[in-house]
Amino acid sequence: MSRIESCFARLSENNRKALIPYVTAGDSSKDVTVPLMHAMVEAGADIIELGVPFSDPMADGPVIQLACERALAHGTSTRDVLAMVKQFRETNNDTPVVLMGYLNPVEVMGYETFAKAAAEAGVDGVLLVDLPPEEALEVKPVMAAAGLDLIFLVAPTTSDERIKLIGEAGSGYLYYVSLKGVTGSATLNVEEVAGRVETIRNLAKLPIGVGFGIKDAESAQAVSRVADGVVVGSALVNQVKEHQNDPAAINQAISDILSAMRTAMDT
Amino acid sequence: MSERPDFSAFPDARGHFGPYGGCFVSETLMGALDDLKAMYERLKDDPQFRADFDYDLAHYVGRPSPLYLAERWSKQLGGAKIWLKREDLNHTGAHKVNNTIGQALLAKHMGKPRVIAETGAGQHGVATATVAARLGLKCQVYMGAEDVERQKLNVYRMKLLGAEVIPVTSGSKTLKDAMNEAMRDWVTNVDDTFYIIGTVAGPHPYPQLVRDFQCIIGREAREQSLKQAGQLPDALVACVGGGSNAIGLFHPFLNDESVAMYGVEAAGDGIETGRHAAPLSAGRPGVLHGNRTYLMEDDNGQIIETHSVSAGLDYPGVGPEHAWLKDLGRVQYVAADDTEALAAFRELTQVEGIMPALESSHALAYASKLAQTMSPEQNIVVNLSGRGDKDILTVAAIDGIEF
């Protein structure tokens, strides 16, 4: 069983939902990321989504765009991100790590080189936001052979037919984008999300994580009532920006948010 | 090159030109692109749609545009005859309007009340604002903050036309960033918004439909060449940023094996300096803005900043069909630098009384070199894709003149 699969199985046994924080690797400096990953696990994170910085993050709002710019300003490369995961794995062998980003930095390495290096570093899954399943025919078997889950997005605009297709193409979990827009957009509508998640459940077998628009303990709790996982990104990345010269303050601020979410989700 | 495909049969059903093209966007846009594809498939051969498009091209744009023999310039160069396809005489002053007319008709059929566009030099923004004004559509145009500064006249033109120009301050503040921002807008407002992409790049079906709308250039030029020169041209020359004017000229000739084709990229300060905008000449394949194509990127797959004196060519990617035509060897991709383009700008203005856009000046610069290697019996058609009025302030600044 993969780390992601056993994580969801374990949570399900205990009737709990996954808390899935996102931070951009290398933001605000390369040294910040690994200690932050450990701090997030201590604060209750079940899976970590680690952003691979890209110069043109078209699906992201200003918060994550700026995080990419900060990470790239001191040259965070895809190989640096893999090195961070490897270092994280030295003391954590349980928490799944999913790399989230765009196709081009992966493509430039070559699919096989990337997949091999990612698996060796201890990466569990890869989510490339500009790679829909129709274009993933070549990369999917390469990731699968390396034991990496390829995670796809489902959107409010996704047809039932496509949900089935995505459910069959993906592994690990499905990432439901709760609203039309970029990351860090307006607040989500929980009722609408609940309806969509139910539709997805009827059409696909994978666990469903919901992201976009989750900002605080209240929205995390509401989403955890209907989904299998709650993804929080921009709200955390904002804290990295706020405290960018102070790694301890970053860890503290993010841990506070995650702990509050964890408590709210578990009650 | 003996196993050339039938170029008219591409892209394939999923938008691929060989390994290039495709549809690399986030899931939220997939539905909208499927809808657009279905609507375009339904309308492209519909007699009424074609008649509406042709009517607008004739009576609103002013087509056909002339094919003009630049006799004095050709003689001065002492080689092949240079014919200019006068897209600069179109309404709004460039080839861009051929495409915005077509896409605005699609927007109308799809019932979208709002259009958005990205623009570099501002020509596509102006052409979009123009058709939006005519059809009563709400229009917002994304433009890199640096381009807003160097293309003030076009910014004001768009405002006069009722469009809102939104300066983009992220990244390199040029065309690629404007395109990122337009994509972000589209993903947020996908229900009521039609994204009018200005070039043959972006996710499928854009490279196909923009090409189809621009092919009027090549179809006319082919007919005019046969009539006026009595033969097909020996060579075609067009500038390539995203590549819409070039593909529009080239495509109807692709199956004519005797016709050589040259796409001219912007060499900026010179290819060897790294400060240029020539992905086909000095880049490599990758994925950006919804399609796989040649890109200017670093070893980590990050897109690098481009440079060209012409804002319309200042783009790190290129249409996927060009990438494919390069690999197949059907089109030769070359480059002209800022200095050569500026010299051609002045030369055509002084010798023929035609002031070309700085983008088109890159094609003229290469054509003048090519002509000198050919004989006076031979013919070159250059796409004079736009007029130079918008560039007067840029050229004046280079001359040290301030207004």
Automatic annotation (TrEMBL), chain A:
One of its GO terms (molecular function) is tryptophan synthase activity. The keyword Transferase does not apply. It holds the Pfam family Trp_syntA. Coiled coil: none annotated. The active site is at 49 (proton acceptor), 60 (proton acceptor). One of its GO terms (cellular component) is cytosol. SUPFAM superfamilies: Ribulose-phoshate binding barrel (SSF51366). It catalyses: (1S,2R)-1-C-(indol-3-yl)glycerol 3-phosphate + L-serine = D-glyceraldehyde 3-phosphate + L-tryptophan + H2O. Keywords: Amino-acid biosynthesis, Aromatic amino acid biosynthesis, Lyase, Tryptophan biosynthesis. The keyword Lipid biosynthesis does not apply. Tetramer of two alpha and two beta chains. Belongs to the TrpA family. This is Tryptophan synthase alpha chain.
TrEMBL record, chain B:
It catalyses: (1S,2R)-1-C-(indol-3-yl)glycerol 3-phosphate + L-serine = D-glyceraldehyde 3-phosphate + L-tryptophan + H2O. One of its GO terms (cellular component) is cytoplasm. Residues 62-386 form the Tryptophan synthase beta chain-like PALP domain. GO terms for molecular function: tryptophan synthase activity. Its EC number is 4.2.1.20. Keywords: Amino-acid biosynthesis, Aromatic amino acid biosynthesis, Lyase, Pyridoxal phosphate, Tryptophan biosynthesis. The modification N6-(pyridoxal phosphate)lysine is found at residue 96. It comes from the Bacteria. CDD domains: Trp-synth_B (cd06446). InterPro entries: Trp_synth_b_CS, Trp_synth_beta, Trp_synth_beta/beta-like, TrpB-like_PALP, TrpB-like_PALP_sf. SUPFAM superfamilies: Tryptophan synthase beta subunit-like PLP-dependent enzymes. Pathway: Amino-acid biosynthesis; L-tryptophan biosynthesis; L-tryptophan from chorismate: step 5/5. The keyword Iron does not apply. It holds the Pfam family PALP. Its cofactor is pyridoxal 5'-phosphate. Tetramer of two alpha and two beta chains. Belongs to the TrpB family. The beta subunit is responsible for the synthesis of L-tryptophan from indole and L-serine. This is Tryptophan synthase beta chain. It comes from Alcanivorax nanhaiticus.
